[in-house]
Amino acid sequence: MGLLIFATVFWGLSFPLIKALLLLQVQLWPQASGSVMVAATVGPRVLISAVVVGLLCLRLRPLLTAAELAQGLWVGGFGAAGMLLQNDGLRYTAASTSAFLTQFYAIAIPITLALRARRAPPWPVGVSTVLVLAGVA
Questions:
Q1: 18 with 87: CB under 8 angstroms?
Q2: What are phi and psi of 9, to 5 degrees?
């Protein structure tokens, strides 16, 4: 439980920190386009995480199938693209609004699935959704 709270605190702090970094970049590099600034912010994060995960999983490489490797690359690519779009949007909105919109999927997915299935979600999902909503509020 302690690690979950720790991770959540740093996740929440990342929005105002990245927003401050983007504002600082505008002052230090006013002629740069927004896309370049966003790439300069996200690029090192994605590169460092790819290297760390790659090194941690190096011994598992012989066990991976080509399909698993391709799926991992696709998921990583979509994750990186999502971070680029999220940080680009952060240039135009408040950090709290960006965090809310980012976290909204944790509420929207269970509600959408419940509506599609036309039945209430299992109680752990319902309780978790209410807790996420309370946390976001």
A1: yes
A2: -60, -45
pTM surpassing 0.85?
no
The reported pLDDT for the residue numbered 102 is 84
Asked if pLDDT for residue 95 goes beyond 70, the answer is yes
- What number of CA atoms fall less than 13 Å from residue 48's CA on the CB side? 6
Neighbours of 32 (CB within 10 A): 14
92: DSSP letter: T
Closest-CA residue to 102 (of 37, 28, 18, 5)? 18
Question: What one-character-per-residue DSSP string does 28-83 give?
Answer: H-TTS-HHHHHHHHHHHHHHHHHHHHHHHTGGGGGG--HHHHHHHHHHHHHHHHHH
Would you call 87 exposed, middle or buried from its count of C-beta atoms within 10 A (0-12, 13-18, 19+)?
A: buried
pLDDT at 136 over 80: no
